[in-house]
Amino acid sequence: MILENITMPLFEEGLKKTKSVIIPFGAIEEHGAHLPLGTDIIHMYEISKKASELYTVFVAPPVYFGMCRSTVHHPGTISIKGDTFRALVRDIITSLYNHGLRNFVLISGHAGGTHMSSILETADAMMEELPEMKASVLSILNLGLASWDGLVENLKDSHAGEVETSVMMHLRPEHVIGSAPDEYPSFPPNILVRDKRRFWPGGVWGTPSLASREKGEKLFNASARGLVKLVKDLEMWEG
Ligand SMILES: [Zn+2]
What we know:
single chain, about 240 residues, alpha/beta, Rossmann fold, 4-stranded parallel β-sheet, 7 helices, 4 strands
């Protein structure tokens, strides 16, 4: 049940079948020279929609904006401040909880550490306030570790590389412009830098050269199945 497509009565009917909702998070962020800026949210929303075809669960509208630290200087990235982001997460959860939803899968196609910490911090605080709230917080990479077994060749791949390029070749081939060189960022350990692009010029973390459309389709379907399993696990969770 895709929230943005259903009516008020269908929402009420749906609540009789499930109290679970997937909230897909992402970012508008550079993804190398070859993938669209919306890669994270396109990826995450499509997986969430696929999961809802396989299992009865609500899918909230995608949260397009997130916190992008290391790519904030790369052209096209839109990053919002932590206070704005946490308030947004809080308001969305509060609203859905007030309508009767109880199990919240907060899953993000963007895996930045600050971004994920903000979702985690907010969900944790809200669990204290909302007695019946259950939550799962994770990025697509965490989900992948459990469900991409044997499909990914480069296990260090994380951004605009093998995985995301493959999935976008499957989901949005018309928006993938060729490929990009393999790359890893070279940020100095433990020191913050002002000019972030200098240490990560191409904005790729991994190996786009290993991508294929066939691999993308398999990764996508495995992710959707992994997400369904997670929703079921959360529903069964007691505590
Ligand atoms: Zn990404």
